[in-house]
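Holo prediction — iron/sulfur cluster.
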Amino acid sequence: MSIKLDPWGSQIITDYSKLFEEFGIEKFSEIIDKIPNPHLLMRRGVVFGHRDFHSILARITSNEKFAVMTGFMPSGRIHFGHKMVIDQLVWYQKKNAEIFIAIADAEAYAIRRLSREEVIRIGVEEYIASMLALGLENKRLHIYFQTNYHPAYYRLIQLFSRKTTLSEFKALYGSDISPGKIVSVLSQMADILHPQLDIFGGYKYVVVPVGSDQDPHIRFTRDIADRFRKELGLERPASTYHRFMTGLDGGKMSSSRPMSAIFLTDSPEKAKEKIWKALTGGRGSIEEQKKLGGEPEKCTVFEFFAYHLIKDDKELMDIYSRCKNGDLLCGDCKKMAMELLERWLKDFQKRREKNMELAYDITNVPEF
Ligand code: TRP
Ligand code: SF4
């Protein structure tokens, strides 16, 4: 059966291996050993796929200039799923990458249909302030709103429109394609390709870390780079793909269902309640769990440990095996997660408050 990735849909991807066969995404596991001090999400297989990452790896190991570009749609509160991308950006920044981040307010306005006031406030206060609090440093950092950037960025959008067809849009995004979606896609192409222009630093090696739902945009953008190779000297961007976090209720993690996600601005009490109610890989009864052991690979709490709360691999493996052999029960395990989470949130939220002013200072806030 063939699958279709929908960047605006609510599908859950259950079988990531299909993406290798169907779309030619390459396995990250085949290059992980060559990466110096890989990020925890890379090491643990959460970042599972890539396109052309070899070229970026060569830049990292030879300490040559490269850039990382990604974007966030400011359509709701920022949660731990978004944090995964930001954590990677922090890692790349330490590897001397130039960081470009689009706040996709044009996309949020056109497709999620929020007001301008809302997308602007969410962009700065939820996203930019949180990024700074998560450790992104205000150097080699370019964060911009899609509606308030350099003229050359808009010029790209206009030029790109010439070498695309409506049938391509329909083939990639379905027949309910709309002007809003078309503008969003062209804008995202400009997001991804603009760091290559001389006025933005001429970064010819650019990697785009995203969730796999964004791959249609990546494929299309790589094609556009080919079509403008002669005219603008554009090269294909590289990309990496990470698994999505499972929603705490077992569905998709989404800002629109508050109990499915823990927001970075949730009060510790609220966050703890969400963990307490979260779907685990535990058995029907304590006796059964002691006998059979739990299933950490199906457990949203274990995912929180693996993706966010426990940095030490040995410590994580210890939880895994104690769960597996029935020594660890879900109640105790959840309490441990709640404690770690509470500490993390308190700390983070203080840092976010401290960075609020800086977030406004470094941002060209659109005037309407
Ligand atoms: N479309 C992305 C999303 O829905 C946001 C985005 C905008 C983006 N521009 C980008 C992602 C450039 C990667 C690169 O989350
Ligand atoms: Fe999940 Fe912990 Fe229960 Fe194992 S013991 S299933 S890791 S909550």
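READOUT: Residues 7, 69-73, 102, 104, 107, 188, 191-192, 208, 210, 214 surround tryptophan (ligand 1) (CB under 6 Å).
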